Each structure stands twice: as C-alpha cells, then as structure tokens.
Amino acid sequence: MNWANRPRRLLLKGVALSLAMAAAWTLWAELHPTEERALRMLVHDQLDNWFPELMSAPGDGFGVALRQAAEQGAMQPPVLLIHGLDEPGIIWDDLVVALADAGFDVWELRYPNDQGIDRSADFLARHWAALPAEQPVILIGHSMGGLVAREFVTRLRYPPGPAPQLEGAPVGGLVMIGTPNHGSPWARLRIWLELREHFEDARQRRFTLFAGLRDGVGEAKVDLRPGSNFLKALNARPWPDAVPRFLIGAQLLSTPSSLTEGLDAAAAEVGSEALREHLHAWWQTLTNGLGDGAVSVASLRLEDAPPPVIVNATHRTMLRRLGPDDPEPPAIRPIIAQLQRWSQSP
C-alpha cells in the first residue's frame, strides 16, 4: 500500500462524499419544497432561540429610515424603497437622486431578505409607524421587494374582509420593478447573490459568522420558485381598488431593424405570410422568455393590473449605472413620470 498517496485519496473521498450529499439534498429539496421551507424556518427559529443576541445584532441596519430628503423640500408624497433578494441597497443609488430632485422624500426599508417573504412583510408592518402618517406613502419594490409590498398590502394593510391589522400611513400606490409575480427559477442560485451582498455591503455592515444567518436561511428562495405555495396564495388574494399599481420590467434583447427586415425578406422570398408571422412570434417568445436575465416578461404580468412597461436593460441595469459615465438607467424616467401622475390625481 502506498501510504504517501493516502491523504490524497482521503481528500478525494471527502470531496466526493460532499458532492454526493449536496446532490442528494438538492434532489430532495426540488421534490419536497414545502418540507424544505418548513425545515429552513425551523432552523431559523432555533437559531433565534439559541443565540438571540447574535441573531438580532443592531449593526445590520435593518429597519425603515429616511435615505434622502427632497432637494427643495418635499412637494410630493413620501416614497418607500423595498429591495429584493440579497440586495445590499446599492441598486437604489441612481433612483434616489432622481426622486429627491423631483421633490420626493425617499425612505428605505432594509430587512432580513433571505427569510420567508411573509415574514419580511411582517417586518415591514412592525416598522410602518416610522413613516410619516399624514399622507399616503408610495411603495417601490425591486424584484422580490415587489412581492414583499404585495404581501404587506393585501394581507396586512388592506386585507379582504376584516379591518386592517395596523394603522399609520395609507398606501398611495405600488411600483413593481422587475418583480417575479409568478416566480423565477434563478432563485435557486441565491448562494451567489448572498456572496455578492456581503462583499458589496462589507463597509456598512459588521460581518460575522451570523451575518448571513440573520438574513434568513433561504426560505425566500423556496417562495420564489414558480408555482410555490406562497405565490399561489399571494396571487389568489384580491388587490384593493384604492391602491394603483405600475409595473415595469426589462428585456435583454431588443429587436434590431436589420433582424426584422431579414425575417420579412425570408418570408417574402418563400411567399408565405404565415411564415412571416411564425418567425416574428418565435423571436418574441425568445425575448419574452429571456426577459431581463432573471425574470421573464410573463412573470411580470398580473391579470388585474396594467400591462408592464418594458425597457431594454438587465435586471439591475434598468435601475443602476454600471459606470459613472453611463446614461441614466432606462426605468427611472417612466417611474418618476408615473409617480407625478399619481400625486396630481385626486
């Protein structure tokens, strides 16, 4: 027996065993999403019970706070920004400046966003009193943040039947930006989003072993799966008529004129109008399915809401510049224009 190679063989066996266990967990989780969510919630609750101080460290900055006041004094309703899954908050940098310039006081919610989306809505309810109550507050949610807002409005602030479960400011409208109303399969890759969140937010957030666990242990990933129990319940709940909505999303691919001309020329050469319609439908299906790279156009839509406005960008670049010399992100002007229309309406 070659004893010199024994450590290497043991290492390879350890790696193989780890991969096999990860594969087995992934397969079980895919087949049992309800049980997976319950198990993750149990782990989260146990950590809260065992390590209450470490799991509620104030250095994370969770809560509702004024991020930027209007430049010339508030002339519009206050706005509350609600970020998405594993987002450290920088997604709002460009929009905050534009909103303040337009006369809006900009508030921001920071919350443990890996926990169940229903718990994130409960978290917002506990901090709702921090907002000014004398006028309606407009909610703006990016990605999963739009689902947190919908859950908050339909289950807590304006539930069907019984009286609201909390008082305070009314909701003056909801803007959903790239919100996966019917889920997103990309939520399965949340581990990479988690790493990005902690790297980008390292200067503002005290990192410890418990920093990621305080966010939750991945319950939100289960809620974001297409067809999840959470999405079924949320989409079955009626929306209050008094709260207007605005949906906006992005597509990675716009249709260049050269492609349109090429499709038309190919169909004309064959002499088939049906072929032309088929080619254009194929391209539209491709771009709609790809969406912004994380959320498809179909997942944006809601049956009882206006159709979404679509801009040419990615899930993040529709709101945030990649470089300081880039043009203003394309979703910002339509959002501000819609907010101004709402504030001018009786």
Could you give a quick summary of the protein structure above?
This protein is 45% helix and 11% strand. By secondary structure, the protein is an alpha/beta fold.
The dominant shape is globular
What is the class of the largest domain in the CATH system?
Alpha Beta
Instruction: Specify Rg, calculated over alpha carbons.
Output: 23 Å
Q: Provide the CATH superfamily of the largest domain.
A: Alpha/Beta hydrolase fold, catalytic domain
Instruction: Examine the coordinates and then state which fold CATH places here, giving the name of the CATH topology of the largest domain.
Output: Rossmann fold
> How many β-strand runs?
7
What is the averaged pLDDT score?
Answer: 77
Number of domains: 3
**Helix count, per DSSP?**
13
Work out the strand percent: 5-15%
As an assembly, this protein is single chain
The side-by-side strand order for the widest beta sheet comes to: 1-3-2-4-5-6-7
- What is the CATH architecture descriptor of the largest domain? 3-Layer(aba) Sandwich
Keywords: Hydrolase
Protein name: Alpha/beta fold hydrolase
GO molecular function, one term: hydrolase activity
InterPro entries: AB_hydrolase_1 (IPR000073), AB_hydrolase_fold (IPR029058)
